[in-house]
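Please decode residue identities from the backbone states below.
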């Protein structure tokens, strides 16, 4: 039997500040590092030998993976894939969720966060938060970089990658993925037929 272990990154600085983060690269908080250590300990205690490690391109997921691998005493590399990135929140990126709920209403924020095919307004390409202006995305083809995404967009991006690169390896290997709330939500929708 093979195992697929899904880990959401530990708390990030913008999680703590209640900001829509999306594709912006923010570091883990001390609490987030402790959460990653706990995840690593729980995995270690299951005695599961991981064959492949996958993470998004984002630092919070990468550092979560590095902490877990250190606890597992495994120095093998992990594969970083932009397709496993968090959902892009468009013009909501960098804004405080509580302040926005007061401004446009909790129902509208909930709708943006949980509706299937509703996208926030596109983020201006001039914004410092747009992936085109973030160094780590400079090597990606411009046509794959979103200005905004719905949950459906995120689902399709994540699932295309999962089916092409990961799923076939699950036949006889154990895989650990460190990713984000919405990319993991997409995988769970597929895996559990939700």
């Amino acid at each position: 039997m093979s195992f697929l272990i899904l880990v959401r990154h530990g708390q990030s600085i913008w999680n703590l500040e209640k900001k829509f983060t999306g594709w912006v690269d923010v570091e883990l908080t001390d609490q987030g590092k402790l959460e990653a250590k706990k995840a690593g300990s729980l995995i270690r205690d299951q005695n599961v030998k991981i064959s492949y490690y996958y993470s998004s391109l984002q630092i919070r997921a990468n550092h979560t993976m590095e902490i877990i691998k250190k606890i597992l005493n495994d120095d093998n590399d992990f594969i970083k894939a932009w397709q496993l990135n968090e959902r892009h929140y468009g013009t909501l990126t960098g804004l405080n969720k509580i302040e926005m709920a007061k401004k446009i209403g909790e129902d509208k924020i909930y709708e943006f966060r949980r509706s299937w095919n509703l996208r926030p307004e596109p983020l201006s390409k001039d914004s410092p938060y747009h992936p085109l202006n973030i160094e780590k995305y400079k090597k990606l083809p411009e046509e794959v970089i979103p200005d905004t995404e719905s949950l459906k967009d995120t689902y399709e991006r994540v699932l295309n990658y999962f089916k092409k690169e990961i799923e076939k390896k699950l036949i006889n290997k154990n895989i650990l993925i460190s990713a984000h709330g919405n990319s993991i939500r997409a995988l769970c929708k597929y895996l559990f037929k939700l």
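Observation: Helices lie at 13-16, 30-45, 59-71, 97-104, 106-114, 151-166, 181-191.
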